[in-house]
Specification:
heterodimer; A: 606 residues; alpha+beta; globular; B: 246 residues; Fumarate Reductase Iron-sulfur Protein, Chain B, domain 2; five-stranded mixed sheet; two-stranded antiparallel ribbon; 7 strands; 15% strand
Chain lengths: 606, 246
């Protein structure tokens, strides 16, 4: 039996993106000794990829904005399946969380009078996204990182957690290995915060990095936690489509916020063709009105390109399917056209969208100040996550286990608004860290079960002990799973395909249980991928199962065989839990009645 | 499809060598795509760091045909076709395995730098007013993705191994961002002079050339910091009058 090092903290935070860093800072501020565990080097997490901005009703760019409008926008965007309490906390607390970043060294773009500037984004009634050009996520993660390293937090870089350790219904730690040497670490903790982000690696075309293997979702599930809203997978409407090697890389919604328009091969702005009823009163009637909105005319309504992501993504798929797509299977996104309206459009575009300019110039050979981009949907965000108590972010079923950011569920309902993820990770990262520290202070020391640790060790070593064959190895299986999910549980879903997905996942699970990785324990990506694969299989099953159960189309979940939204299905969330027999179980959890004052706000905001 | 030969350094701290792999290079391939193909099909245990594959996280730093580059932003069709493409780890840092190096020193140095120290908020609402013009100067430095290619290429570190006396271009960019933040009240001049060794930089501008974020490291960050050190530490008149340093 191999050796392991035991590391003890009051609170461990798993994941060091925005949510994990914010949670670690809050837990340390709460007096806890904190360990921060991350799969990559510090500051490399997927938060760096966030581009457009962080949503907060600062009302700097439009004084009509306030938390109530933000709350109502978030609920409408989520098709009212959101946890209303989380949506309330989020809208109320986001402004303070964003301002706080400035006191930690963040430098966001300014309004003419020197306050933080805010830009338009899909589904937000007023310009609400504080930003730095199109690299807002980098600004946030670096700010949190540079602040965090002075808070007495122990950072365990390039360490991957493979299992949560439990004592009855309480989480008491985590089992992990370090990527560099493959040595085992056992984290003993009074409280554990999951902040592992999303699940993008379950799909072929994704904007997500390799780290997004659903670790937090799967770790929590196997430890007895509930998962909620797993059918809601956001496909961002605009990912790069050409060349193939960059397929899926994100093209920020900020392009459309700055006036970019979507056109099909006939040159038609097809987004004007179909405005959903929930948004008819808020959408521009003409391109001319849309442009006035972009340049800040408060009387104008937003252009249809800035409708919610689920809707825009579906419209793009429709254009492509009906033969009006671009040469490489997308549609055209044109920002260069604004030169008709403003002087020095080229300089303006390069200043407002510098990363986009470089990304297209260097990777696709396209100059976005002169020609349109080709874009298409890319798997981007997981609305579903660990089901938590809204105020504390503690799991509904596992004590001492908290979840924040993308791996936590509830805030976004059936569809997330752009910009709400960065505010989500600040607001609920802080809450999770704070409550985890409180929980740790109020609960006795923990005892780790040797059997659990031994089992975790043998499970982790298993892929190295089996014979390796690249044709049936971890990369091959991951590739097959991605293709299965892309084809059968992707943007447009159907009963028989979802059943095929579930059957395919079972077959892949069987193959994964006998798969060998080859190589040694030292920085071995084959081995790492083999271990991550188990998490991907778990969350893929949850997605396909919840998607098959929801026989309607709502938000990001679009069923070909049930195309209409059905009010009866708008009364509950799907909750997934591991059954006593080890099989995945799904149930309907009725929505909690929305507090009266919040109902009034929703009504007032139309 | 014609195969392209990649020579990838395989090994660890005890040594290693270039190994040859044949890769089917698809349209638009970047070097990282080739490395991934090798990893998936020929060498599952080929160690490489990467995250975003879009030039934003700064993980996949390596030396491609001898030049410090991000593998995800280096197009294969931009490289010479008449010879194999070599991919080696950053040579300034100790090897861990294959293309992965031990960059922990950077994180240690950063921790020693005096942290951000904001002034009292100057607006009634408890926030600060900052002009866009004033913010843009440090914003250039905040584009840094910590790929450490500038550290890799800097001869003070690479050839002279002065890691104990010299913090390197990345850290000067970090200090410049703090010093030029409109609301920072710290003063890192003595630290720059005595601990971070800004004086050792002799302005060869290699760092600026390799920066994938196009930060003008030498001109905009290091030289202004050198000027601050000189301004605050060395007074020629006082020296003439025999008052010595400071």
């Amino acid at each position: 039996m191999s050796e392991h090092q035991v590391v003890e903290h009051d609170v461990i935070v798993i994941g060091a993106g925005g949510a994990g860093l914010r949670a670690a800072i809050a837990a340390a501020a709460g007096g806890a000794s904190v360990g921060l565990v991350c799969k990559s080097l510090l500051g490399k997490a997927h938060t760096v990829m966030a581009e457009g901005g962080v949503a907060a009703a600062l009302s700097n760019a439009d004084e009509r904005d306030n938390w109530m409008v933000h709350f109502a926008d978030t609920m409408r965007g989520g098709q009212y399946l959101n946890s209303w309490r989380m949506a309330e906390l989020h809208a109320k607390e986001a402004p303070d969380r964003v301002r706080e970043l400035e006191s930690w060294g963040a430098l966001l773009d300014r309004t003419p009078d020197g306050r933080m500037n805010q830009r338009n984004f899909g589904g937000h009634k007023y310009p609400r996204l504080a930003h730095v050009g199109d690299r807002t996520g980098l600004e946030m993660i670096r700010t949190l990182q540079d602040h965090g390293i002075h808070q007495g937090i122990d950072v365990h870089m390039e360490v991957t957690v493979t299992k949560l350790l439990t004592d009855g219904d309480r989480c008491v730690g985590a089992f992990a290995y370090d990527r560099e040497r493959g040595r085992f670490k056992v984290f003993k903790a009074k409280a554990v915060v999951l902040a592992t982000g999303g699940i993008g690696r379950a799909y072929t075309i994704t904007s997500n990095s390799w780290e997004y293997t659903g670790d937090g979702h799967a770790l929590a599930y196997h430890a007895g936690a509930e998962l909620v809203d797993m059918e809601f997978v956001q496909f961002h409407p605009t990912g790069m489509v050409w060349p193939p090697s960059v397929r899926g890389i994100l093209v920020t919604e900020g392009v459309r916020g700055e006036g970019g328009v979507l056109k099909n091969s006939e040159g038609r702005r097809f987004m004007f063709d179909d405005i959903p009823p929930l948004y008819q009163g808020q959408t521009a009637a003409t391109p001319e009105e849309g442009w006035r909105y972009v340049i800040g005319d408060k009387e104008a309504r937003r252009p249809p390109e800035l409708l919610t992501r689920d809707h825009v993504a579906r419209k793009i798929v429709k254009e492509v399917k009906e033969g009006r797509g671009s040469p490489h299977g997308g549609v055209f996104l044109d920002i260069a056209w604004i030169k008709q309206n403003i002087k020095d459009a080229e300089g303006h575009i390069r200043k407002k969208l510098p990363s986009m300019y470089h990304q297209f110039k260097e990777l696709a050979g396209v100059d976005i100040t002169k020609e349109p981009m080709e874009v298409g949907p890319t798997m981007h965000y997981m609305m579903g996550g660990v089901r938590v108590e809204p105020d504390s972010q503690m799991s509904t079923t596992v004590k001492g286990l908290f979840a924040a950011g993308e791996c936590g569920g509830g805030l976004h309902g059936a569809n997330r608004l752009g910009g709400n993820s960065l505010s989500d990770l600040l607001v609920f990262g802080k809450r999770a860290g704070e409550y985890a520290a409180k929980f740790a202070a109020g609960n006795s020391a923990v005892k780790l079960g040797d059997d659990q640790v031994k089992l975790a060790e043998s499970e982790a070593l298993a892929p190295l002990e089996r014979d390796a064959d690249a044709d049936v190895g971890p990369f091959r299986l991951q590739y097959e799973l991605q293709k299965l999910m892309q084809d059968k549980a992707g943007i447009a879903r159907e009963e028989t395909e979802l059943t095929e997905a579930l059957e395919g996942i079972q077959k892949l699970k069987a193959r994964a249980s006998v798969m060998g990785a080859g190589g040694s324990r030292e920085y071995n990506p084959g081995w790492h991928t083999a271990l991550d694969l188990h998490n991907l299989l778990t969350i893929s099953e949850a997605i396909a199962l919840a998607a098959r159960e929801r026989k309607e189309s709502r938000g990001a979940h679009a069923r070909v065989d049930y195309q209409a939204k059905d009010a009866a299905w708008g009364t509950f969330n799907h909750v997934i839990k591991k059954g006593k027999d080890g099989n995945m179980e799904i149930r309907r959890e009725p929505l909690a009645a929305i507090r009266q004052d919040l109902q009034d706000i929703i009504k007032e905001q139309g | 499809m014609a195969k392209t030969e990649f020579q990838v350094w395989r090994g660890d701290s005890s040594g290693g060598e270039l190994q040859s792999y044949q890769v089917d290079v698809g349209p638009g391939y970047v070097v990282l795509d080739a490395i991934h193909q090798i990893q998936a099909e020929q060498a599952n245990d080929l160690a490489v760091r990467w995250n975003c594959k879009a030039g934003k996280c700064g993980s996949c730093s390596a030396e491609v045909n001898g030049s410090p580059r991000l593998m995800c932003m280096t197009r294969v069709d931009d490289l010479p076709k008449d010879k194999p493409i070599t991919v080696e780890p950053m040579r300034t840092f100790p090897s861990v395995k294959d293309l992965v190096t031990d960059v922990s020193w950077n994180y240690e140095v950063k921790k020693t730098i005096q942290r951000f120290m904001p002034s009292k908020p100057d607006a009634a609402d408890g926030t600060w007013r900052m002009d866009q013009y004033d913010v843009e100067r440090p914003q250039e430095f905040r584009k840094c993705i910590e790929c450490f290619l500038c550290q890799d290429v800097c001869h003070v570190l690479r050839d002279h191994h002065m890691h104990d006396r010299f913090a390197g271009p990345r850290m000067f960019v970090y200090v410049a961002n703090l010093e030029m933040n409109p609301i920072d009240t710290g003063n890192r001049v003595a630290q720059l002079r005595d601990e971070l060794g800004v004086g050792y930089c002799n302005i060869t501008k290699c760092c600026t050339k390799v920066c994938p974020e196009h930060i003008t490291i030498t001109d905009n960050a290091i030289i202004p910091l050198k000027e601050r050190v000189v301004d605050q530490s060395y007074d020629p008149i006082a020296k003439l009058l025999g008052a010595g340093k400071e």
